[in-house]
């Protein structure tokens, strides 16, 4: 009995010691009274820096409960609704490859390009539009004025271009219309339908600014660059053109014109930048009446007065208008309207010699004969270029080889004038494709 009593006493003693140990352990884990949440020391709460533009609001002290409270993250700043930020607008304008609806582009970011095509000018016009799409960054809106027979073919050809390029533009096709005078007489003035350009301010009433080009024009750099010249207009200027010639003594107007013309050499209207809003709102000085006339009211009387003295049709009428209103015209350098006249008598466009040809104007049909093989080589290189190919391999290098065959001509002796700007443009396009679309990491 004594042994059993001793064993029971020892067991009770051991249980008492174990109970005391458990109580001591619990006291060390929870020294504070229950009800106040305490985070474990091994995992301290991470502090977030306050949002600089918005100080944190005071919060009520939490009630004393046994629950642990979750961490609160600082609120995310969301962009305010309304006008897009400048960075977003710039990205929208300069990232033509991104998938975005054209209708989301703000009106001020469009580049409006107009062309008038009649007769056999379908291919020439499509090659011109192709050159604009190949190199430009911003969204383009084409305004194509043409005959009824050509409308379905224009629409069909433009819709067959790859999606990566059709996303960069939208087009609208208009009939040939003349708001005043005899339409047939206007249509036959100089080249078929060329006089249509005089009526663009009247027809495109919802367009603020516009770049008009002839069908035989090629862009060798982004259209964005010539569009920027609109910013250089002063308060009275409403249109921009290049001189007809650089040397007065060999210019056509200075030697043969029988009517007033702008400056000492006249201007060429094959590439014409216009602020249509200013044109519509201006009263133009003229030789018809002592007071000013609106643009639309001036066209027919002006034509009737000078129709027996003009040779180059609508271009002559524009020269007459700006002869009486020289303050309205901004004259840009010859590199923006480079024609055979600038090299066939010897190089006389200094700006093109320094910076290269920016816009090529193959007038006199030089794209389709052998008189100026340098111009023809550029036209065929852009015409035959497959959209998805590498610009250097499929356009620039073959173009260099073709130029070697033209060194016997005066224009062919200065290949750097023709190649300088287009090489720079292609290099930028290539670098943009590699860095932005392929990515710098994939190059290594």
Automatic annotation (TrEMBL):
Q: How does it sit in the membrane?
A: Single-pass type II membrane protein
Name of protein: UDP-D-xylose:beta-D-glucoside alpha-1,3-D-xylosyltransferase
Q: Which domain of life is it from?
A: Eukaryota
Principal localisation = membrane
The compartments listed are: Membrane
Task: Give, as one word, the top-level EC class.
Answer: transferase
Q: Identify the GO cellular component terms for this protein.
A: membrane
Q: Which GO terms describe its molecular function?
A: UDP-D-xylose:beta-D-glucoside alpha-1,3-D-xylosyltransferase activity
Region (Disordered): which ranges?
A: 35-99
- What family, per the record? Belongs to the glycosyltransferase 8 family.
Report the gene name: Gxylt2
């Amino acid at each position: 009995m004594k042994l059993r009593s001793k064993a029971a006493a020892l067991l009770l003693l051991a249980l008492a010691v174990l109970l005391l140990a458990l109580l001591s352990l619990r006291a060390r884990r929870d020294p504070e009274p229950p009800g106040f949440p305490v985070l474990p020391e091994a995992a301290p709460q991470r502090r977030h820096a306050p949002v600089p533009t918005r100080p944190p609001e005071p919060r009520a002290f939490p009630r004393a409960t046994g629950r642990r409270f979750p961490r609160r993250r600082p609120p995310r700043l969301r962009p305010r609704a309304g006008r897009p930020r400048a960075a977003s607008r710039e990205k929208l304008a300069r990232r033509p490859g991104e998938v975005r609806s054209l209708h989301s582009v703000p009106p001020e970011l469009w580049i409006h390009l107009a062309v008038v095509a009649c007769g056999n000018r379908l291919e020439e016009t499509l090659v011109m539009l192709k050159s604009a799409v190949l190199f430009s960054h911003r969204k383009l809106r084409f305004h194509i004025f043409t005959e009824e027979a050509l409308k379905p073919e224009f629409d069909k050809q433009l819709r067959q271009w790859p999606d990566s390029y059709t996303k960069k533009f939208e087009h609208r096709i208009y009939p040939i219309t003349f708001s005043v005078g005899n339409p047939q007489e206007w249509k036959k003035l100089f080249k078929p339908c060329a006089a249509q350009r005089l009526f663009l301010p009247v027809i495109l009433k919802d367009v603020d600014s516009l770049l008009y080009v002839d069908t035989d024009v090629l862009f060798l750099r982004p259209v964005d660059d010539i569009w920027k010249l609109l910013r250089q207009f002063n308060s009275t200027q409403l249109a921009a053109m290049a001189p007809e010639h650089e040397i007065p003594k060999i210019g056509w107007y200075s030697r043969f014109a029988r009517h007033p013309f702008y400056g000492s050499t006249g201007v060429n209207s094959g590439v014409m930048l216009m602020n249509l809003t200013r044109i519509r709102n201006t009263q133009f000085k003229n030789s018809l009446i002592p007071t000013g006339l609106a643009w639309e009211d001036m066209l027919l009387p002006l034509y009737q007065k000078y129709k027996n003295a003009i040779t180059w049709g609508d271009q002559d009428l524009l020269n007459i208008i700006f002869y009486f209103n020289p303050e309205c015209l901004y004259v840009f350098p010859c590199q923006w309207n480079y024609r055979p006249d600038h090299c066939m008598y010897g190089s006389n466009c200094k700006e093109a010699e320094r910076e290269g040809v920016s816009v090529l104007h193959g007038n006199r049909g030089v794209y389709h004969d052998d008189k100026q093989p340098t111009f023809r080589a550029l036209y065929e290189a852009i015409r035959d270029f497959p959209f998805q190919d590498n610009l250097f391999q499929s356009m620039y290098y073959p173009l260099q080889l073709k130029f070697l065959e033209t060194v016997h001509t005066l224009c062919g002796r200065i290949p750097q004038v023709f190649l300088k700007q287009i090489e720079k443009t292609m290099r930028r396009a290539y670098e943009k494709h590699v860095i932005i679309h392929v990515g710098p990491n994939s190059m290594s």
